[in-house]
Amino acid sequence: MVNLIRDPLTLALSHDGWHFTSVGNIGSCWEGVFTNPPQQPLGCLNRFKGGGIQQGLQYPQAIAVTGKGVEGFYVILSQNKEDIWVSHTPFKSLNF
User: Fold this and answer.
1) Does this model's pTM top 0.85?
2) Per-domain boundaries in the chain
């Protein structure tokens, strides 16, 4: 069995759905904030054993939110099928 790590999670932007003008990193389990205790001392490595566990970022769900103080692109995802992450990217930081 091949063990592939799904990482990083990226976001590509397009005006028409065919031509993508930019791409950026939404998250990676190797980012410093998630590889130092207590947040995630093992990065992409699993903390627990299990037959269905796969390393990396899975099941991303995204929503664009407008409203005073909360504007942005939010992504909720599973990391290693062990933790849930929420990523927020302000609209103004997207080069679109």
Assistant:
1) no
2) 9-93
